[in-house]
Design brief:
Length: 89
């Protein structure tokens, strides 16, 4: 079985949250811009495909929902990254 003394001496494994936060802390500006670019196209394509999945023609819609949601995602991504970088330690 497990020995409590060995469990006590084992180093703590960092959680995935701390790994993600560490990666965000080390991001230079060009990586943040690349994440913004990827977020825009990921959300834009995802929303457009969901609209197609439910049987609507994209040209029949008055508002381009994919473009709006992609723009919102590209605005929110650097803000979230900036907030994580500037958090209290």
């Amino acid at each position: 079985m497990t020995d409590p003394d060995r469990e006590k001496d084992r180093p703590a494994v960092p959680s995935s949250d701390s790994l993600i936060i560490h990666a965000i802390d080390e991001m230079p500006l060009r990586v943040v811009l690349a994440c913004t670019f990827v977020a825009f196209f990921f959300v834009w394509g995802g929303v457009n495909n969901l609209i197609k999945l439910f049987g609507h023609d994209l040209t029949s819609l008055e508002i381009n929902y994919g473009l709006i949601s992609g723009t919102l995602a590209s605005i929110a991504t650097p803000i979230i990254i900036w907030r994580v970088k500037r958090r209290r330690r």
